[in-house]
Amino acid sequence: MKSNRNFGGKVLLLVYILISMSIHLVCFKFASLKIYICVSVYQFCTVSMIYLFYRKIMNEIIEQTQMLEKTMDQMLSHCKLGYEQLLEDTLYSKLYTKLYKINEIQKLHMQEREDELAITHELISDISHQVKTPIANIRIYSEMILRNEELSEDTIYKLKTMELQINKLDFLLKSLIKMSRLEANMIVIRPERSKMIDLVAGALNNVVIDAEKKNINITTQCSHNIMAYIDLKWTIEAVFNILDNAVKYTPVNGKIIIKVEELEEFVKVGISDTGIGIEEKKIPLIFQRFYRDGSIKNIEGLGLGLCLAREIIEKEKGYIRVSSKIGKGTCFLVFLWKGKECND
Question: Do the Cβ atoms of 336 and 232 come closer than 8 Å?
Fold first, then answer.
């Protein structure tokens, strides 16, 4: 806006010089000295008034534009707009009135949506809690029956099939809870200085059993004094989701390496596996909600884990990078912000 104002002033100055030169030439040739002086003074006063009027108009436009820009920023930041400007009788006040109404309507719609999502989240949570107890009881009784050495092979087969179905039902319930958290925007991050060794240990605890079933060797490299500014509980959830995928898509006797490195502003958590790999063109798609590649439909999953992981990490001012080769494996790099305290 300032450059436009300067450009306009330069144009007016150029026009003034051209007109002045033309009039001066005419007056100098055909008129007396008195007329020449009068015309020059008149011309100077006229152009000065025009320029001052132009400056006044431009200053008003700039002021109104800045006020509107500030109001728009407040709306985008979901700040409450004041009502004092509504009482004024200016052009800005009229525009502000329209923006105020739009902002109030937007806030009303947002509140309605938040209420609906909160109800949905509460309903799913209630259902999951109500179903968890029966599932746990069925699993316990099934394990007790399987300990009976006198069972026939057919009975054992049926009980193990039932156990698989129980596990699948438990997995679906956990996925529903994750989905409700995403939909209702229930992820509230409360970061604090946390040890990376606790993060790695917490995430590993949830995958170690599945890894042992496939004889997958997991190695870790993490110093005890490396720390980052994170919400430990939620970050364990994010890293677990990445590790869970690594275990799922790594074949029997495969390897997973977890390496934690301290950088200048971030802590890098590398998770690499010897799994089936991801096509390069499909890497941007894996963080989309419910994305499932057609080639892995036989592997259990709903396509929510990586979406949830990225949302958690980004809320903590971090980010995730992925590289992969088909048939050789995938490497996830999770960058966690160390916080201001670490950089001072």
Answer: no
